[in-house]
C-alpha cells in the first residue's frame, strides 16, 4: 500500500517501523510546515507552553478546591486534543488535525466540542486536502474538511463554548455564521494558497497555504481587522469603525480587549485623551467581575459584531489643532496581566491595529 520511491527507499525503511505522532517526525519531510506551525498559538495550546492558560487553570482549581488536573481534563479536549498521549504537550499538533477521519458527535453524553466530535483514523494515514501523493511514511486520504468544508474542522474547537455555569464564553463559530463574508477561516488564517513543495521528497509543486494559523502574535492580521475613518462634523470628531473580519472584533476568549484611543493636541501638547473599550465583561454569582471559566453572567459586550459599522462621536476639546486616533489590541486585559503576574511578553504587549491623524 505504501510505495517507497526507489532512490530514497533504504533511508526510510527505518522510519516506517518507527511511527511517531510527534511534529518532530513530520519535520523530517515537512520542515517548512512544522516551522510555520511552531510560531502559531496552536503550538502553545498546552498548559506547559502557555503561562496564561496554566495560571488560569491553577486559579480555577483553587476556587473550586480541586486538583488542576481535574480542571484540565475539560480543557484538554480542545487544548491538547491528540489521541496519542505522548504528543499531548504539543497542543494542537499535526496529527490532531491530520489523523481526523470524520467530524461527528461521538460520545452523546458529552458536549459536541473538541475531541468529543472527532473519529480518529488509524495511526499512519493522513487526511489531506488533495488525497494524492506518495509518502513512504504514511498513507494519504482526501477529506472534505481539509479543503471544501474546512470551517467544519476549525469549528470543532472554535465554536460555542460554555463554562460549567452554562455561560457562553467563546463563540467564534456563531459569530462567523452570522456574518455575511463569503470567506472561510483558512482563507484569512492560513493565507492565500500559493504553489509550493509539500515535502522535501516532492518533485512537483502543489497549491498550499501557510500553517501559521495567523493571529496577533505571529502575523500582521490585526492590520486587516478594522477600517477606521476620521471626519470632523459640527464640532465633533466622528470615528467610523468597520469590522473587516467575519466574526467579532475581538473574537475568541473573553480575556481579549481592543481600545480606541483618541488623543487631542494643541500644537505639540496633548490636551485630552478619550478611550473606548471593545470587550466582553463577565461577572460571578456575587456580581463581581470575573474570568470566563468562573462566570455566571455576561455583564456587557462592546465588541464589534460581524458586519458592524460603528460610529463614535467625540466633542472636540477647545483649541485642538489635530487628533490622533489609535486602535490597539491585547491578548490579555491589563487586569488579567496584573492578577496573574504574567511575565510572557506576548500577553503584556499592546499590538497596533491602526492609527490615523486628522487636522481639526
Ligand atoms: C488546525 C488544524 C491543522 C493543524 C494543527 C495542522 N494542519 Fe496541516 N493542514 C490543515 C489544513 C486545513 C490543510 C489544507 C490547507 C490548504 O488548503 O492548503 C492542511 C494541509 C497540510 C498539508 C498539505 C499541503 C498544504 O499546505 O496544503 C501538509 C503536508 C500538512 N498540512 C502537514 C501538517 C503538519 C506537518 C502539521 C504540524 C506541524 C500540520 N499540518 C498541522 C490543517 C492543519
Ligand atoms: C518520510 C517523509 C515523510 C514524513 C516523515 C511525513 N510525511 Fe507527510 N508526506 C510525505 C510526502 C512525500 C507527501 C506527498 C507530497 C506531495 O504530494 O508532493 C506527504 C503528504 C502529506 C500530506 C498531504 C496530503 C494531501 O492530501 O495532500 C499531509 C497532510 C501530510 N503529509 C502530513 C504529515 C504529518 C502530519 C506527518 C507527521 C505525523 C508527516 N506527514 C510525515 C512525506 C512524509
Ligand atoms: C483541536 C482543536 C482545534 C482545532 C481543530 C482548531 N483550533 Fe485553532 N485553536 C485551538 C486552541 C485551543 C487555540 C488557543 C491556543 C492557545 O493560545 O492556547 C487555538 C488558536 C487559534 C488561533 C490563534 C488565536 C490567537 O489568539 O492567536 C487561530 C488564528 C486559530 N486557532 C485558527 C484556527 C483555524 C483557521 C482552524 C481550522 C483550520 C483551527 N484553528 C482549528 C484549537 C483548535
Ligand atoms: C475575513 C477574514 C477572516 C475570516 C473569514 C475569519 N477570520 Fe478570524 N480573524 C480575522 C482578523 C482580521 C482577526 C484579528 C482581529 C480579531 O480578533 O477579530 C481575527 C482573529 C481571530 C482569532 C483571534 C486571534 C488572536 O490573535 O487573538 C481567532 C481565534 C480567529 N480569528 C478564528 C477564526 C475562525 C475559527 C474563523 C472561521 C470560523 C475565522 N477566524 C474567520 C480575520 C478573519
Ligand atoms: C471547545 C474547545 C475549548 C475548550 C473546552 C477550552 N478552550 Fe480555551 N481556547 C479555545 C480556543 C479555540 C481558543 C483560542 C481563541 C482565542 O484566540 O481567543 C482558546 C484560548 C484560550 C486561552 C487564551 C490562550 C492564549 O494563548 O491567548 C486561555 C487562557 C484558555 N483558552 C483557557 C481555557 C481553560 C482554562 C479551559 C478549561 C477550563 C479551556 N480554555 C477550555 C478552545 C477551548
Secondary structure elements and pairings:
Blueprint: H1 9-17, H2 23-26, H3 31-38, H4 51-64, H5 68-79, H6 94-98, E1 100-103, E2 118-120, E3 125-128, E4 139-142, H7 150-158, E5 161-162, E6 168-170, H8 172-178, H9 185-189, E7 194-196, E8 206-208, E9 226-233, E10 236-243, E11 257-266, E12 269-278, E13 280-283, E14 289-290, E15 297-301, E16 309-315, E17 322-330, H10 334-339, H11 345-348, E18 351-359
Parallel strand pairs: 3-4
Antiparallel strand pairs: 1-2, 5-6, 7-8, 9-10, 10-16, 11-12, 11-17, 13-14, 13-15, 17-18
One heme C (HEC) is lined by residues 151, 154-155, 158, 172-173, 176, 181, 183, 185, 187-189, 215-216, 221-222, 224-225, 245-247, 249-252, 256, 331.
Question: What keywords describe this structure?
Answer:
four-stranded antiparallel β-sheet, 2 domains, alpha+beta, three-stranded antiparallel β-sheet, Immunoglobulin-like, single chain, 360 residues, binds heme C, disordered N terminus
Structure description:
The strands form seven sheets. A four-stranded antiparallel β-sheet has the order 12-11-17-18, with no helix packed on it. Strands 9-10-16 form a three-stranded antiparallel β-sheet, with no helix packed on it. A three-stranded antiparallel β-sheet has the order 14-13-15, with no helix packed on it. The protein is globular. It folds into two domains: 9-208, no CATH class; 221-359, Sandwich (Immunoglobulin-like). The chain has helices spanning 9-17, 23-26, 31-38, 51-64, 68-79, 94-98, 150-158, 172-178, 185-189, 334-339, 345-348, and strands at 100-103, 118-120, 125-128, 139-142, 161-162, 168-170, 194-196, 206-208, 226-233, 236-243, 257-266, 269-278, 280-283, 289-290, 297-301, 309-315, 322-330, 351-359. The protein contains eleven helices and 18 strands. Mean pLDDT is 93; it is low at 1-17. The chain is an alpha+beta fold and 360 residues long. The chain binds heme C (5 copies). The site of one heme C (HEC) has 28 residues, from helix 5, helix 6, helix 7 and helix 9.
